[in-house]
Amino acid sequence: MCVEIKTIFMSSEIKYRRQEDQASYETESKVKLTDLLSRLNQEKKRERNSNIALSVAAVSAVTVFGIILSL
User: What is the pLDDT along the chain (71 residues), one digit of tens a residue?
Assistant: First the structure.
């Protein structure tokens, strides 16, 4: 036997809850620009390293394929 429970909110109650959520986000903490910039730089480094690894793998595959074809 399965019982389904539904919660019905009035539109004003939903608006009030959204305002409470926004207020809690505003009071929690502020974001520092230096933290964001350092995260951005770290992400760029990771992306650059993965691009280099992918390029090396592609060049290696082409080289091996060329060697096999020349034999």
Answer: 555 555 555 555 555 566 655 655 555 678 889 999 999 999 999 999 999 999 999 999 999 999 999 98
Positive/negative CA dihedral, 60, 62, 63, 65: positive
- The C-alpha atoms of residue 64 and residue 56 are separated, in whole angstroms, by 12
Q: Burial level of 32, CB count in 10 A (0-12/13-18/19+)?
A: exposed
- DSSP, residue by residue, 15-70: HHHHHHHHHHHHHH----HHHHHHHHHHHHHHHHHHHHHHHHHHHHHHHHHHHHHH
Domain segments of the chain: what residues? 35-71
